[in-house]
Amino acid sequence: MINFEEELKKFHPSLEIEDAEDAIYNQDLTDMADVLVGMVREVKEEE
Questions:
Q1: 3-state DSSP call for residue 30?
Q2: What is the pLDDT of residues 30-46, one digit of tens each?
Q3: Dist. CA 24–CA 16, nearest whole Å
Q4: CA nearest neighbour of 23 among 32, 33, 15
Q5: pLDDT for residue 23
Q6: C-alpha distances in Å from residue 14, one per residue of 19, 21, 22, 23, 26
Q7: What's the CA gap between 42 and 40, in Å, rounded?
């Protein structure tokens, strides 16, 4: 039978998942609001 307590002691989180989490949270994503603000700025600068 599987001894779950022993298996839990052996468990180590995957470094790949932690690295992916950091990359996702630290990425600067442009959303639609940012795009619209940029477009409005461009139009105002042309006037």
A1: coil
A2: 788 889 999 999 999 98
A3: 12
A4: 15
A5: 76
A6: 9, 11, 13, 15, 19
A7: 5
pTM reported for the whole predicted model: 0.40
Distance CA 43, CA 35 (A): 13
Report how far Cα 47 is from the mean position of its chain's Cα atoms: 38
Q: Is the dihedral of CA 30, 31, 35, 38 positive or negative?
A: negative
- Sequence ranges of the domains in the chain: 4-46
Q: Look up tokens 């779950």; give the residue.
A: 4
Phi, psi of 39 (to 5 degrees): -65, -40
Place of tokens 């949270």: 25
